[in-house]
Amino acid sequence: MRGIHSACGPSQVTPYSRGLFDNKSLRGSISIVRTSPVWNSRWYSSSVNSKGDILKGSEVSAGATGSDMDTSGVGGSEWIGKVKEAWQTTIDAVTYTGEKAKEASSEMTPYVEQVLDAHPYLRDVIVPVGGTLIGTLMAWIVMPRLLRRFHKYSMQGPAALLPGSSIWGQVPYEKSIWGAMEDPVRYLITFMAFSQIAVMVAPSTVASQYLLQTWRGAAILSFVWFLQRWKTNVISRALVVKSLEKGDRDRLLTLDRISSVGLFILGLMTLAEVCGVAVQSILTVGGIGGVATAFAARDILGNVLSGLSVQLSQPFSVGDTIKAGSVEGQVVEMGLTTTSLLTAEKFPVIVPNSLFSSQVIVNKSRAQWRALVTTVPFQIEEFDKILQISDDVKNMLRSNPSVFLEKEAPYCYLSKIEKTYAELTLGCNLRYASKDKLFSTQQDILLQAARIIKQHGGKLADPWTQ
To answer: Quick one: pLDDT at residue 450?
Structure first.
């Protein structure tokens, strides 16, 4: 214990420690520590001799026990006061450090100004260029991390409650609004930085009066680029939704094309306004000349408008088999002015879109079923068996898996009686299938109908032979 006392005594204080204790904030911290009961008990126990250690130690222990019992009700308030004092001490230390840094900066400023005045190129070129390059580098390194942090915080909000398959649910950073913002902002800052450097390095070559105008144009292009990227991300997320129907998918693709053209035109007009071009005057003159142009190009405009109407209303899509007037085939491509079809003979046909606005369009691919109505002429001696033949044919149609029974029941009836033959009319709805399977089903139904007629003693007849 004496060794501890001698180690902590005044004789061991060095000049460095004396400088530390001269600090006001540290003196305040030490005063807090010295006023605590734990520090007083330890200091007292280390100051006594070895003979009085046991007695003093017991007294301190007893005093501590009594103190704990007496101050159990107010211990919390004492600790709150100590925390406040420690917080004030920390504030004083930070304030002291800031004052010292300010004093050091004030002392260094004349020397820095002297160096910059002695080297004008360093003051006018190197330091501004270096600062601009450092800021640009920070934009390339720090800004993506900040945007990723913002994306992480936004995904922890209400979007975290949405399912992953939702358009507005959990999305990766690359497909989010923050990911769409990264490249436009980064390249905008880079362009502004290097244009500023060009003005500083070669002021006689690059006109500084056009710098602000150039920055405005770059900001507009970056904003349009951001909107295009964000729009593409949203539509791409919507296209991967499994519950999206084919018609909605085609409408989204059409909306993507139209919005891209609209953003391009809007960005071009805004950029022209920033550059000093009177867009309103151009539109006025263009409106006057557009009347004459509309008469000359009314067919083209009609095809364009019809193409937009077809792509928005989606009466057919790529891959469908359609019939419009005398034109029939499979849709291969849908353009803005024309639509390409492929006929049954595999001949390509280019159809103007204006045709679809004046013709009835039959979309065979979207039919859920196809009707089959046919007649079977036959000869039979016993007319009483015709009713049984009709019932057997209807039962055969009902048992066929290719027959669609939900909308209309199959039918078979005697539709004609001539001198040498009778005629059965049978009909049903067949499920939609490819041409090969459809023709195979029709063939199977006709063969089974002929087999039923033969089983009842009848035979097929020629209606043209009387």
So the answer is: 93
Which has the minimum average pLDDT: 24-38, 284-298, 363-377, 417-431? 24-38
Q: Which of 253, 262, 274, 252 is nearest to 224 (CA)?
A: 262
Q: Please tell me the CATH code under which domain 304-363 is placed.
A: 2.30.30.60
The most confident of the ranges 247-251, 304-308, 411-415, 418-422 is 411-415
Q: Sheet of 369-379: strands edge to edge?
A: 411-417, 422-431, 369-379, 459-460
Domain boundaries, the chain: 2-92, 124-285, 304-363, 369-460
Q: What is the pLDDT of residue 76?
A: 57
Tokens of 191: 């362009």
Instruction: State whether CATH 3.90.550.10 applies to domain 369-460.
Output: no
Could you tell me which of 347, 346, 341 has the C-alpha nearest to residue 364?
341
- Say which residue, 203 or 16, is predicted with more confidence: 203
| 3-state secondary structure labels for all residues of the chain | CHHHHHHCCHHHCCHHHHHHHHCHHHHHHHHHHHCCHHHHHHHHHHHCCCCCHHHHHHHHHHHHHHHHHHCCCCHHHHHHHHHHHHHHHHHHHHHHHHHHHHHHHHHHHHHHHHHHHHCHHHHHHHHHHHHHHHHHHHHHHHHHHHHHHHHHHHHCCHHHHCCCCCCCCCCCHHHCHHHHHHHHHHHHHHHHHHHHHHHHHCCCCCCHHHHHHHHHHHHHHHHHHHHHHHHHHHHHHHHCCCCCCHHHHHHHHHHHHHHHHHHHHHHHHHHHHHCCCCHHHHHHHHHHHHHHHHHHCHHHHHHHHHHHHHHHHCCCCCCCEEEECCEEEEEEEECCCEEEEECCCCCEEEEEHHHHHCCCEEECCCCCEEEEEEEEEEECCCCCHHHHHHHHHHHHHHHCCCECCCCCCCEEEEEEECCCCEEEEEEEEEECCCHHHHHHHHHHHHHHHHHHHHHCCCEECCCCCC
**Residue 232 clears pLDDT 70, i.e. is over it:** yes
How many CB atoms are located within 10 Å of the residue 259 CB?
15
Tokens of 160: 């975290």
Q: How far apart are CA 370 and CA 350, in angstroms?
A: 27
pTM given for the model: 0.46
Q: 228 with 265: CB under 8 angstroms?
A: no
